[in-house]
Amino acid sequence: MTSPIFSRHVSAILALGFLGCFSGNALAQSTNSQMDGLKLSNDQPIQIESDSLEIREQEKRAFFTGNVKVVQGTTTLQAGAMTVLYSGEGSGITQGNADIQKIDVNNKVFLSSGTQQATADSGYFDMERQIFVLEGDRVVLSEGKNVFVGCKLTVQMTTGQAKLDSCGGRVQIQLDPKSQQTNN
């Protein structure tokens, strides 16, 4: 059971609108891109499932472990584990007045919304800085036949600006020209 306030803050996980403006042209021209679909939206209910939940009120942490699945609207986040760090005097997850500071996800992260998907080894949401990061040996973003590969995706959640890094190698992009014809 999650409280409305907890849900409102954690909805940043899924409220990315995910890769809504994930156009091949935008990322093909630069690894710095504007992705308006990655902006926050806190207006939909959120559902969180996991094999277990441990809340440590003194540490202000909640640990969701085992087959974590978070759903908000058409967006789904799956991971092996999710840790929520929160703050606030006298606040707590169970009391519904926690202020979420950071959310860490790891152990095979999968994020999807409609036809758009991303996979990574781990990721985090820095709620104070409004930044979302996916990292790993191979971070893969896809929409239909358009595929973007790097090792680190950084998204500014309030603006949707995104950057895909190669981490020593090169960013790889595969674009399907037919997908551009349907978007115009």
Automatic annotation (TrEMBL):
Segment forming the signal sequence: 1-28
Domain of life: Bacteria
Chain ranges of the Organic solvent tolerance-like N-terminal domain: 47-160
InterPro entries membership: LPS_export_LptA, OstA-like_N
Keywords: Signal
Keyword Signal listed: yes
Residues annotated as transmembrane: none
Protein name: LptA/OstA family protein
Source organism: Peteryoungia desertarenae
